[in-house]
Amino acid sequence: MEAHLLEWLNLSVRWVHMITGVAWIGASFYFVWLENNLNRVNPKSGLAGDLWAIHGGGIYHLEKYKLAPPTMPDNLHWFKWEAYFTWMSGIALLCVVFYSNPTLYLLAPGSTLSGPEGVAIGIGSLFIGWFVYSFLCDSALGKRPALLGFILFVLIIGAAYGFSKVFSGRGAYLHVGAIIGTIMVGNVFRIIMPAQRALVAAIAENRTPDPALPAKGLLRSRHNNYFTLPVLFIMISNHFPSTYGSQYNWVILAGIAVLAVLVRHYFNTRHDSHKFAWTLPVAAVGMICLAYVSGPKPMSSAPEVAKAPAAIEYQPLPETAVGGGLKPAEAKPAETPAAAPAQATNAGPSFDKVHSVIQERCSVCHSAKPTSPLFSAAPGGVMFDTPEQIRQNAARIQAQAVATQIMPLGNITQMTQQERDLIGAWIVQGAPTN
Asked: H-type helices in 98-240, by residue range?
């Protein structure tokens, strides 16, 4: 029952995060589009421009003031709660998924860190990320936006590299996203909203607004705009183990971030011209290149993989992996006694050996009735109860247990490299079950 309730808590928080995130990023995209499409030719007195639009069966006329109307309206709509709730729900999601069970989801298998140490690193990185970012923006670099942007990119990718050394691939990616999200909401809360309040207060008091605050707000707002596409990728990345599961996951993240920023720059500037249209085909080619270089290494040919060990000796499953308690035992490398290699033959590994490994290491979770208390149902609906189910999921097993080795989660069942090689050799043979 506890696993079932945790799953629904995860779903609820994730849903709120998605809804508020769509509202926040959607509003950001809309106002950037609005700003870029204003008609600035011969505007009315006091206006910076206007725009006519049609949507939902109605025609709208929008006007932007150079500064503000002569008198402030009674109802002025502010855009802030979308950002605040996106961040709060994101932090709640970090707690539910990663911090409530850090040895399973957060830490890399075999990590020497304890769960509380991993959580402390994760939380601390959010505060450090914001203060370093804010310091750089307020320094002389704030007047050199291109150089500032490059330095911020290097620091963020540096954080991704550091996280990849102590966290799981998913944990590393999500914490990079959390740092960027914290920077974005910090910009709204600490810079953009105070600048807007100061502007409204100055107009209400009939005095000249301080131009420094809007300038800072514009810089931070521009950063938020370019952060959006990398953050959106990170939000969906946990569905794609070939990215976060790669040993070069931080390089892949850097590549995708660069491509995303290029695409965003085109959409930010296309109202003036299409001189950055080249970024779209470059981004497409870049994604193809990333898919190629991040692909799994070719498996050995059949005669070579037939040299797999004749027998597999198992380490007993940790008691907490199959019953009693939600905290899994820390995964430790299994000590497999040296075994004399079998003579090379034309026959690949037998399915009986593969089946035993999968039942021992994988089916504690991936079953119609999981024996692990961590799940009330098979994750993703993937089950390995029958030979046919195992054969049908051979490609998925290859990708997640052999190539990227992101499964079992946190290597809770202590699958050995020898066992992964055995499964990989069986898949190369065509995954026979007879």
From this structure: 102-105, 115-138, 145-166, 169-186, 193-204, 212-236
